[in-house]
Fold:
Amino acid sequence: MASYYQGGLRIVDISGELMGDLYAQGREIAFFMSTDSEGHVPNKANVWGTMPYKDLIYFSDMNSGLWAIKLVDDNPMGTN
Structure:
């Protein structure tokens, strides 16, 4: 996970060799923009302090407070 200030929360794959721009290499798995119409600066993300714990990802946004989100796979693989 990476806190990206105005870019929100970014989840990237850091396996293998880490050389250069991870976004240009297509290693971004997901992102979340913590915009809130009632924030200190409305609808503007300013993320920092990302911390995974158990099944949640906690992070603070300087404009809208503390968030806890869960990463889910929209396209699960396997047999059903």
